[in-house]
Design brief:
Oligomer: heterodimer
Number of helices of chain A: 12
Number of helices of chain B: 11
CATH class of the largest domain in chain A: Alpha Beta
Number of domains of chain B: 1
Radius of gyration of chain B: 18 Å
Largest sheet of chain B: none
Number of domains of chain A: 2
Strand order of the largest sheet of chain A: 6-7-8-3-9-10
Order of helices and strands of chain A: EEEHEEHEHHHEHEHEEHEHEEHEHH
CATH topology of the largest domain in chain A: Rossmann fold
Chain lengths: ~350, ~250
Amino acid sequence: MIRARGLVQTFQTRQGKKKTEVRAVDGVDLDVAEGEVVGFLGPNGAGKTTTLRMLTTLLTPTEGTATVAGYDVVRESEQVRRSIGYVSQAGGAFSGARAGDEVMDHGMLYGLKRSVVEERGKRLFEQMNLDGLWQRMPKNMSGGQKRRLDIVMGLIHEPSLVFLDEPTTGLDPQARANLWEHIRDLRARRGATVFLTTHYLDEADALSDRILIIDQGRIVAADTSDNLKAQVAGDLVEIEVADPARVGDAAARLTTITDGRAEVEVEDRMVRGRVPRAGRAVPGLLRDLDRAGIDLDAIEVHRPTLDDVFLTLTGRSLRDAEAAQQGDGGEPAADDPEPTDAPEAVLR
Amino acid sequence: MRFLRESSIVFRRQIRMNLRNPAWVLIGAFQPVLYLLLFGPLLKPLVTQFGATNAYTFFVPGMLVQLGIFGAFFAGFSLIGEWREGVIEAERVTPASRTALLVGRLYRDLLQLLVQALILIGLGYALGMDASFGGLLLGVLLTLLIGGACAAASNALALTTKSEDVMAPVINVVMMPVLLLSGILLPMTIGPAWLEKASDFMPIRHVVDAVRSAFGGDFGSSGLLWGSGWSLLLFGLAIWWGTATFRKENS
């Protein structure tokens, strides 16, 4: 459905008098099969939106090629446009116009008949739980309703491939959960291929069959969530030792069940290590510690998260990457800076 | 055919939004009316000095061009709001022609200008303007051409700057010399030679002259030819610029 090879996008930026060339997207290869739901994950400014804008014909690639829905994004942009739906971060319905009017006009720009658009639009309103909001202005809608309206506009010409750019950014947790259901429905109900960008790990995890991770304009990983997590050397086991004198002893015993790729860390009375299949190994560890007379105050086992994956792949945590991005400011792409009080998702 | 369909979808959408918030249209029409009522009478005793016979036949053409230029220059502001809300991008992912996206908006600006022009001409007649129907028609046509050019340029500027804060000063910088060097209020011929020479380089001055010639029934004048030429040229250039910005990747 999507095949991109060596996509590059450069921007000229000016810092003071010095002109510099920024490679916002620096050689992206990606493949998406029909019917797949793919999550495109990366920190702000990693090149997600820029890549998306190239795939949706809004931006001509500086280098490289891409075919979307069987058509070349540069030479056959019109056919690409007919085949895809795109829901941008900004939406697409004017806040001061009536929702239904915006949907009608948008659909008719695809060359559809008024009656067809109206019938489809009203049915989509029902499916998206927007019943009775046809006449409402987007400025009087909740964030979740507004997002669902944007998706209705993106679906009005019944595309087989839907691009969603940061679909749940800025929504409250309930509205997010609700929108996730609707996004899942896109495939379940219409068999659509879905390509969504997000910088929320849990969102990529919850919605996608496969995850592409982009960092600094390059794809650093492309696999299923489970496989990506399996790349991280096991689950994180944290034990809190009651007697400070026995911490070294406990660390030695934990080391016996790690696979030796990463060192066991010790910090005050805390001992941490990566243990493959910790669920099976931990009972033995506990008996071992018990026999040696080492008392524990607490033990915790964490499954690897996509943040761990990101850390393994790039040497930075996703949160650090976000902070670094926000620090340097001069960012060329349309990736909006996010409020720092992002949902707990980033931490999970 | 397809172009007409697409541009008229954009046009109807724009008109719907304008009608919802008609304040700008009214303000735009009100300004020249005030000029006509409050400045026109001052011209009356002076017109003979610069070779005209009827103050309003002289003054209404200037007001028409002013309306065409200044009203249209503000057309781009609404585009920035639309861009910010993702409307332009949403339109650009549809297969619709990029030129249609611009031209649909120009239809709105031209319709608005036409309504304002008719108000102005009606009022001019009521005050004693004397112009032939053919002259009026030609004058209004030129006004629409130059207005369309300015509206297209304004839309292009809006999509290039994407900021009201940048656009407002730019428009002001352009507007002042245009107003002062076009002979909109008083003819350049009454000024010193250097000033008149300077005004020769101002294309809008020729447009004003042309509309005046048309209203005065002076169809054979070279001024009419020059002004029409400039109007067409500016219109062509602005449409080209506007379409280019709508086509351009970054907008």
